[in-house]
Amino acid sequence: MGTEVLIGKTYGIDGMQLLQVDGPHAAPCQHYKEYETCLVVGAGIGITPGSCILKSILRYKWRKGANPKRLYFAWVNRWSNTIEYQWFILLLTKLFNKLGHDRKIGVVSKDQTVQCHLFLTRFNPEKPGDASKGKWKLLEGCQKMARRIDTSAPGGFKLKTLWNKVADMHKDGDVKGMPNLMAREDFESAKLKNRVNNIWLWYGRPNWDPLFELIVRSVPGKRERDSPISIGCCFCGMTVIGKQLKTACKKFSSQSKGVFFHLHKENF
């Protein structure tokens, strides 16, 4: 018995291809390089594109003087689920220690700045995690890779230092205190208990207003420029956070100050 071969149709009765792809469509987060100042936000698994951007900028693009010159990075995640993201905490440890060495040898300028804010929700200060045992103990693979990290540069830190602060968050990290802390003129240099290098750990749902105010305040040369300043906001994550960022972008865009936020987002 022979086998009959049927050739599939590629064109319809109108002469057009049955299957067409309209594109290419760039991911919203790819717009970060269009801005000198940019806020990149990831929520939950939305940290995947965000972590790639962070790695690309800190490890490679800043060596070539690429944008953004001022990067603000935020991640929103349930505190108890952070156990599954040890790889990201390890990545932060690698990147910020490497950045310290790059600054030391002069391949990254002091004008290229980064702030990383981790918002971990549903943390109960009365029931912190114990990073020395149980489910909060670091995976052996992460510990093994962490031992290879050179922490000798100024501001260097070990993976365990950052992980301990994730597991047992300090009261300075209560988001209710964000407005007062971020309003301080010395916020970027203050030695807060919820800080490791340029990584701040906050517990509670994100309070975007103080962060947006800080970004606007930190943009250099606002009054001296004739043309408006565009600030990027790239987001990947849940719809509800996307709506919050949209509201904040609109609220802190100011004609009088010549500052405008532009939101690029993808929701799931």
Structure explained in plain terms:
By secondary structure, the chain is α/β, with parallel strands linked by helices. The protein has one domain: Rossmann fold. The protein contains seven helices and seven strands, in the order E-H-E-H-E-H-H-H-E-E-H-E-H-E. The chain has a seven-stranded mixed sheet, sandwiched between helices. The longest helix has 20 residues. The model has no long low-confidence stretch (mean pLDDT 92).
CATH superfamily: Nucleotide-binding domain of ferredoxin-NADP reductase (FNR) module
CATH architecture: 3-Layer(aba) Sandwich
Tell me the number of strands: 7
CATH third-tier fold name: Rossmann fold
Shape: globular
Q: How big a fraction of the residues is strand?
A: 15-25%
> C-alpha Rg, in Å?
22 Å
Task: Give the C-level CATH assignment.
Answer: Alpha Beta
Lateral strand order in the biggest sheet = 4-5-3-2-1-6-7
Instruction: Assign the structural class, choosing from mainly alpha, mainly beta, alpha/beta, alpha+beta, or little secondary structure.
Output: alpha/beta
Count of alpha and pi helical runs: 7
Mean pLDDT: 92
Distance between the termini: 50 Å
- Total individual domains: 1
Helix content range of the residues, please? Answer: 25-40%
Q: Sketch the major β-sheet.
A: 7 strands, mixed
Order of helices and strands: EHEHEHHHEEHEHE
